[in-house]
Amino acid sequence: MSGAPGALVAACAAGWAGARVSQYTRTMNTGTRATRAAPGAGPGGSLPSTRRPRTLKVEVAEVIRETHDTVTLVFDAQPPHDYRPGQWLTIDPHQFSPLLRFIQLMEQLKGRREPPRAYSMASAPHEPLAITIQEETWTPGEQAYPTILSPYLVQDVRIGLPMTIAGFSGPYHLPDDVIGHTDHIVHVCEGSGIVPNWSIVKAALRDHARLRHTLLYSNTSWDDIIFRDALHALAEAHQDRLRVVHLLTAQADLGGLPATVRRGPISTALVREVVPDCHNALYYACGPALSPWHRLAAKENGVRPTPRFMERVRDIISELGIPRSRVWEECYG
């Protein structure tokens, strides 16, 4: 875990100073996450249910290796499920006996009990329940403590493992009256930020025939793209409703790759090109943001912290003049 939840909410809020929002903090695929949705009257007014999450006992039915550091765990819980695409479930690490001594050490060092971790559903509600986890790495000086749960889930979980999960929660989902606000959803993601949007896209293509989707998906290299083949297949099956643009930030040679692949990070010019109706669309952005530890390290070195993906996205949204009420974001440190 990196940083205090309250501090991360403040860090995520820095890019939207003055906006009225509801804030939720959690861990999901990598690091601590904060979710933001505009309140009340605007398109972002759909807030999470206040009902208490229910506990489910499940077994791992399938383990799908997505990339070298990412897996999808498919559970034996069959559809339909009562969550909103884009929401998450939680897993308490104390239930896994191989982790207990490590957890006890971390709790002694931190002076508090380790909380459950939350992971976005990779499945849509009409599919078998599944989550996708990217292994968190520990870099001394960037995170205070080593990661507890994600390495175990990615590297050691096998088919048949029983576990208890709790769900479902989160405001990062389409509003009930989405068609009343737009016919175009723009998904802006980096790395494991694709997971909640993958659930949203699959469900919306099935349930909202009038909605179009554009996905701008940033990764380091072609081999780092989560759901790569499935994204291609879905776009091929819905060519009039789903456009996927891959952005590779550290791969110089694009030879042999599809025409949907671009070199470099996301930019204002790219959004203008790919989303000509940018002021009419709704935006769902998920990816890494500056954590309290990044900000503290920069302060100690007397420099400004280097913006990460979500900071760039916020700048682009501002440069395009897109109202904040048309933007949902979920960030992790």
**Helix proportion:** 10-25%
Number of domains: 2
Mean pLDDT, rounded to whole units? 86
CATH superfamily of the largest domain: Nucleotide-binding domain of ferredoxin-NADP reductase (FNR) module
Q: Count the strands?
A: 14
Q: How far do the termini sit from each other?
A: 9 Å
> How are the strands of the largest sheet arranged?
1-2-14-13-9-10-11-12
Q: Judging by the overall fold, what is the CATH architecture of the largest domain?
A: 3-Layer(aba) Sandwich
Quaternary status: single chain
CATH topology of the largest domain: Rossmann fold
- Class computed from helices, strands and strand pairing: alpha/beta
Major sheet size, sense and barrel closure: 8 strands, mixed
Q: Stretches where pLDDT falls below 50 for ≥5 residues?
A: 1-32, 38-50
Binned strand content: 25-35%
Sum up the structure in keywords.
globular; Elongation Factor Tu (Ef-tu), domain 3; 333 residues; 2 domains; disordered N terminus; single chain; 23% helix; 8-stranded mixed β-sheet; 6-stranded antiparallel β-sheet; 14 strands; alpha/beta; Rossmann fold
Give an overview of the whole structure.
The chain has helices at residues 5-13, 100-110, 150-155, 194-207, 228-237, 268-274, 292-300, 309-320; strands at 22-27, 32-37, 54-67, 70-75, 88-91, 117-120, 130-134, 162-169, 184-190, 212-219, 242-248, 261-263, 282-288, 327-332. 23% of the residues lie in helices and 27% in strands. The chain is built from eight helices and 14 strands. With 333 residues, it is α/β, with parallel strands linked by helices. Strands 1-2-14-13-9-10-11-12 form an eight-stranded mixed beta sheet, with helices on both faces. The protein has a six-stranded antiparallel beta sheet with strand order 6-5-8-3-4-7. It has two domains: 5-26 and 33-48 and 172-332, Rossmann fold, CATH 3.40.50; 54-169, Elongation Factor Tu (Ef-tu), domain 3. 44% of the residues are buried. The protein is globular and about 55 Å long.
